[in-house]
Design brief:
Elements: E1 3-7, E2 10-13, E3 18-25, E4 32-39, E5 46-52, E6 58-60, E7 68-73, E8 78-83, E9 92-100, H1 107-110, E10 118-119, E11 123-128
Parallel strand pairs: 2-11
Antiparallel strand pairs: 1-3, 3-8, 4-5, 4-9, 5-6, 7-8, 9-10, 9-11
Length: 129
């Protein structure tokens, strides 16, 4: 049974930091991508960052480059999203998702929610001004 569980959200002031965790397990593919998405009220879900299981390649959307960093701990089957210099516009529910059978990770796949097979329930991140 596939499980994708996010944690680490919360309330933080502008300029603060948070680290989100995504524990993903139970899927069969050895080659997969794990992505972070976010959805603010009234907006569509957007891709933020992703990482490949095969070669640890990563992508980021422009709005978070230099502020967010994605990493993985294979021993713990966990992916992290370290968020720094947070802004009020980063406020959203953050979701972790798994795309199976990804041999070559492309940015177009990274940010396309339709490419992902399994989703977590989300964790709220609120940045106060």
């Amino acid at each position: 049974q596939v499980q994708v569980v996010e944690s680490g959200g919360g309330l933080v002031q502008t300029g603060g930091s948070l680290r989100l965790s995504c524990a993903a397990s139970g899927f069969t593919s050895d080659n997969y991508a794990i992505g972070w998405f976010r959805q603010a009220p009234g907006k569509e879900r957007e891709g933020v960052s992703c990482i490949s299981s095969r070669d640890a390649s990563t992508y980021y959307v422009d709005s978070v480059k230099g502020r967010f960093m994605i990493s993985r701990d294979n021993a713990k089957n966990t992916v992290y999203l370290q968020m720094t210099s947070l802004k009020p516009e980063d406020t959203a529910v953050y979701y972790c998702a798994v795309a199976e059978n990804v041999v070559v990770l492309l940015f177009s796949l990274c940010v396309s929610r339709h490419e992902y097979d399994y989703w977590g329930q989300g964790t709220q991140v609120t940045v106060s001004s």
